Amino acid sequence: AFGGNVSEKGDWINVDITTAAQRNIFIAPVSLWISFDAGQVKAVAYNKLTKEIKLTLAPADAYTPTAYFRIESTTARATTYKPATSLSLEQGRFVLPLKNEVTTVVLKVQ
């Protein structure tokens, strides 16, 4: 991982983000870009068995009450992902209201 501390526990690979690169995440095994226009990712977890992805986002603040993000495959044969919970779409971005504590969003294979 670039810009983070990596650990592995069971089927999960975890990355705690340590740099300013908190808005763009690339998951190489599934050729997936996750880009945030608003909101900051604090940690990412990838399950090698189920391919599930968990994103832990920083709490809401006065300037960022909502996270906006895109999920893009980088190859034609890449796995398709969507949030596990229903989120609205705005200009091609998922809209995730943030909480006053960390918010977790789960992405699952479709």
Verbal overview:
The protein is an all-beta fold and 110 residues long. β3 and β4 form a beta hairpin. The protein starts with a strand and ends with a strand. The strands form two sheets. The protein has a six-stranded antiparallel beta sheet with strand order 1-2-5-6-11-8, with no helix packed on it.
Question: How is the topology of this model organized?
Answer:
Elements: E1 4-9, E2 12-17, E3 24-27, E4 32-38, E5 41-47, E6 53-57, E7 66-73, E8 81-83, E9 88-90, E10 93-97, E11 103-109
Antiparallel strand pairs: 1-2, 2-5, 3-4, 4-7, 5-6, 6-11, 7-10, 8-11, 9-10
Shape: globular
The major β-sheet equals: 6 strands, antiparallel
Rounded radius of gyration (Å):
13 Å
Helix proportion range: under 10%
Helix-strand makeup class:
mainly beta
The total strand number stands at 11
Count of alpha/pi helices: 0
Secondary-structure element sequence?
EEEEEEEEEEE
The N- and C-terminal alpha carbons lie at a distance of 25 Å
Beta-strand content bin: over 45%
